[in-house]
Amino acid sequence: MVVVGAGLSGIGAGYRLQTECPGRSYVILEARDAIGGTWDLFRYPGVRSDSDMYTLGYSFRPWRESKSIAAGDTVLEYIRRTAERYRIEDKIRFRTKVVGADWSSEQGRWTVTVEQASEQGGVERRTMTCNFLYSCAGYYDYDSGYTPDFPGVEDYRGTVVHPQFWPRDLDYTGKRVVIIGSGATAITLLPSLARQAEHVTMLQRSPSWIVALPSRDKLGDRLRAALPPKVAHRIIRAKNVTMTVLVNQFCARRPAAARKMFIKLTQRAVRDEAMVREHFTPSYNPWEQRVCVAPDADFFRALRGGKADVVTEHIETFVPEGIRLKSGKVLEADVVVTATGLRLLAFGGIAPRVDGVEVPLGEQFVWRGAMVTGIPNFAVCIGYTNASWTLRGDLTSRLVCKVLNHMTERGYSSVVPVPDGTLRERPLLTLSSGYIQRSIQDFPRAGHRSPWRVRQNYILDAASTMRTDLDRTLRPTRREKTKVGSDG
């Protein structure tokens, strides 16, 4: 078996395969030269988790650090330690990028084409075969971020930086910085840059919902002090999952009341009602797009401290000294940070082919948020958009293990999900965020009913996913001629 990606999802998949499918061999292919995925790639100042680590972390390895909203390097170390502890790192092939995947119905196997960096600095193309392919590469394009075509940017005399590719040697001490954007990255960057910069301005076209949360879980701290680590972890995790689901359900069912609640919380943090009306009251309802987190209200404290501000306007053009807005105002800047979003890339850029024909992903349906119609022996890890990614990521890995064991028990060498009736399509990712809407047509679709719905509710998914009747919608496409062994 081949797992693509050695980030949070891939390491979790390795653990589940070792513990729940011990007779099956596997390898993890990682395009970069380090464990961690997103957490190793993103190195911009202040990078941190935007979900609590009791749910973003693994259920099988309790989070033991002091902060539940954790710094990026702490999250990265947690992933590395997990891979080391369970010997998963021994299964990883670094600098091995998957560039093609071809399924043969006749052979009942995948031929995976990879590019490997050689010690001489070149790139060698090779192939390997496996009987099951599991993409844990997420849905972001790690090679390019999203930046609009800003007019006049070629005339700008300062430095333009995208957070996804933050230069290690960038010195912004005592400089004027403008951050373009209002998403989670911009909210994280502003208080971090304000500590050293002369002044930081966050320039947004429209506001985002921002909620201030404690970086430490005080109740969790008390539980950890009183109970054994694993017991405390389970209780804290259950508490946080329940709170997340309740808040999301409240926002979905009572959007007007949710708006009032979020505005009131923001007013408490900002202490300026006029500023909240102008800069922190979005046109959309809470959780129609992902809500940004400001741990310990650091974002709002930076604004109150006078070294940062927010401007809500549209850009007319870049000018040599900075950015001219449509109002005519010029924001002078030594550094402009384009926190304008990410690009989505289905299955980490893998374009699966079946018997020589590329599968049109936009025409397929996703079964249980994991497997895809028309593609045998293939699964993809897609986390939640309104909760910690790992919650559904781990459910998906456990489901994949259940499918693999089911195949062994039934003597199937390949299976594919098939709808049992007509499905009405739903988008795979339901948030209205621009980065999703720009690319969602390239992804498979969800259906209107189980097991084709892709819910954003971990409690319901946890209760139903592992009880799935695999014989109902998972069809064998090939049976083993001999007993299935440990070949991955």
TrEMBL record:
Q: Which Pfam families match?
A: FMO-like, NAD_binding_8
Annotated keywords:
FAD, Flavoprotein, Monooxygenase, Oxidoreductase
UniProt KW Lipid biosynthesis keyword: no
Cofactor list: FAD
So which domain of life are we looking at? Answer: Bacteria
InterPro entries to which the protein is assigned, alphabetical: FAD-binding_MO, FAD/NAD-bd_sf, Flavin_mOase-like
Entry keyword Cell wall biogenesis/degradation: no
The family annotation for this protein states: Belongs to the FAD-binding monooxygenase family.
Q: What is this protein called?
A: NAD(P)/FAD-dependent oxidoreductase
Naturally occurring in which organism (per UniProt): Catenulispora pinistramenti
